[in-house]
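Hello,

Our lab assistant flagged a job as stuck in the queue for most of the afternoon. It eventually completed. Since we weren't sure the result was trustworthy after the delay, we are filing this so someone can double-check. Below is the sequence as submitted and the structure that was eventually returned. Let us know if re-running is recommended.
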Amino acid sequence: MDQNNIIPRFSGNINVQIDDYILNHIDEEGELLASLNRDAHVNLLRPRMLSGHLQGRFLKMMARIHRPKKVLEIGTYTGYATLCLAEGLPDDGVIHTIEIDDELEDFIRKQFDKSSFKDKIHLHTGDALDIIPTLNESFDMVFLDADKRLYSQYYDLIFDKVNLNGVILADNTLWDGKVLNEPHPNDKQTIGILEFNKKIKQDTRIEKVILPLRDGLTIIYKIKNG
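-- returned structure --
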């Protein structure tokens, strides 16, 4: 079939209507997360970076289904996704989350302190490339949402720490559609995503699927060690 003759199912304003319909027919995000969202839009420079209602409910559902005892999040930002993952954890589940920007620490801790799940969350501030090797833990789930230039390095660093049958969720893997075009040599973020996607495609130790959720979310399932 000629790909150029495929007509998109939705186009234009209908996408917005579909998004609204979805949000009106899934679980509410709750007052704490709604308040966090408002605070981020008032106080932070790039509030669009937080996961948001739909992705947040998806992350909670993934944790509900997979029931991970230990989760690693690389890239805390506001803590929105962290709180969503914590909601879905079993009673004995914990999440380690790493944020490189120490100027966000006060904002993040304020949000965590409001949550009934705060005792499940361990915040680490600093460079994930330095912190991950110091974590004497193995993980059932990893959520990767940090520097896109370093996705492949993060992946290599965490792979042996992910348990067999564990799940890695990588955010922004469609990168606003930029993955469809040849990147500018200075566009290191897009280059990083393209390199990561190629790496994942070729890795026979995993099963993987990319969902067109927001900016692209890759679900990676570990089937082999080594």
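-- support follow-up --
The delay was a queue issue, not a problem with the job. The result is valid. The chain is about 35% helix and 20% strand. Helices lie at 14-24, 31-43, 52-66, 80-88, 105-113, 128-131, 151-158, 188-202.
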